[in-house]
Amino acid sequence: MSGSLLPAIHSDFTQRFGYEPLLVRAPGRVNLIGEHTDYNGGFVLPAAVDKEACFAVGLNGGSRIRLVAHDLGETLELVNAAEISPSDTHWANYLLGVAAQFQQRGIAVPGFDCVFGATIPIGAGMSSSAALECGLAFALNQLLGTGLEPLELARMAQQAEHTYAGVQCGIMDQFASLFGRAGHVVRLDCRSLAYEYFPFDTTAARIVLCNSGVKHSLASTAYNTRRQECERGVATLQRHYPAVLSLRDATLVQLEAHRAELDPTVFRRCAYVVQENARVENACRHLEAGNLAAFGQEMYASHAGLRDDYEVSCAELDVLVEAAKAAPGVFGSRMMGGGFGGCTINLVAPEHVDAFIASVSAAYQQQLGLKLETYQTTIVSGVGVVPVAVVQA
Ligand code: GAF
């Protein structure tokens, strides 16, 4: 259990509440390619990684919900679990939103206690919020014996984000946290939710994240705006091509043919999504062929599209990607996640990782006066129970 918060979370829970909880870990995720495609019915290529949220959860036999953010030293108590509503306490909404999803499905939520903490850096684009949602959804499903399938838990976690956090996100992050498989990336068709695992060979490339350390404040508003712009594009295309249900069905030829009817910004947003979907398909073929150089080129093209057409990058991320291009042993680099800050994801030859980190850190310091934090991630399995005996070992 080295490096895990679970031992501390476990003892915090037993000291506060005096009974044994269920222990659950829920990983954050990386996404190799396929950004802002999930809510357009398209393709993504994420993996669960070794930065995680940890939970100790138990039913308390009463009607109170007692939530403890271990890292922050903050608590929130709700007198009546039957009356859940959004809270002014930001972090609590990810958890309350999940409990509300059980209720919406007609599943009564009795009083419960939850102590949680996370090693996922907040605002780094590694889905700390999805990990919180998925971890509690999984824990309550176990404790209540509701037997909901993991896909349903992913949908509930996504809905919690929509209704209690106000972000109209797609399903990638929640899916990756629940369905991650150690040593594999997963290609998800976000429309059919069909998925396929691809082995990721860490002897050929390591996944290194460079955290810009910035999170621009309008990120969630801008995210929702991007989604609306895509929907406007689809509405226009649908008048001509009724089979276009989402941008996943659209082509560049169709967009070009009706360019005059589309707002120029909407056109660029849609063109980016259509191209990014194609890049995910190409990238999977390159991964299967073991062609990391070609895979990396798709990553660079993805970043250029996110920067120029989708406009969700920022100066700090652009500096990091340019610095990566100039560093030794790099196959590819791009911003990752919703954007406006957070991390870049970099595929780096194992023998060059140290030199890569030194080189990008120096460039970041020199060009922006900022200190870079980096993470070498490993790919782990999705949300799961951790036996108390393992935590105490
Ligand atoms: C965020 C969202 F939560 C995801 O659903 C996805 O849209 C991503 O941004 C961009 O690809 O992480």
UniProtKB/TrEMBL annotation:
InterPro entries in the cross-refs: Galactokinase, Galactokinase_CS, GalKase_N, GHMP_kinase_C_dom, GHMP_kinase_C_sf, GHMP_kinase_N_dom, GHMP_knse_ATP-bd_CS, Mevalonate/galactokinase
Gene Ontology MF: a single term: galactokinase activity
Residue span(s) of domain GHMP kinase N-terminal: 93-181
GHMP kinase C-terminal domain span: 287-364
Keyword Metal-binding tagged: yes
Record keyword ATP-binding present: yes
Keyword entries, A-Z: ATP-binding, Carbohydrate metabolism, Cytoplasm, Galactose metabolism, Kinase, Magnesium, Metal-binding, Nucleotide-binding, Transferase
Matching PROSITE patterns: GALACTOKINASE, GHMP_KINASES_ATP
Gene Ontology terms: biological process: galactose metabolic process
Domain Galactokinase N-terminal residue range list: 12-58
Enzyme Commission number(s) from the entry: 2.7.1.6
Top-rank taxon, per record: Bacteria
Record-level GO cellular component terms: cytosol
PANTHER family: GALACTOKINASE-RELATED (PTHR10457:SF7), MEVALONATE KINASE/GALACTOKINASE (PTHR10457)
UniProt family annotation: Belongs to the GHMP kinase family. GalK subfamily.
Official protein name in the record: Galactokinase
Organism: Hymenobacter glacialis
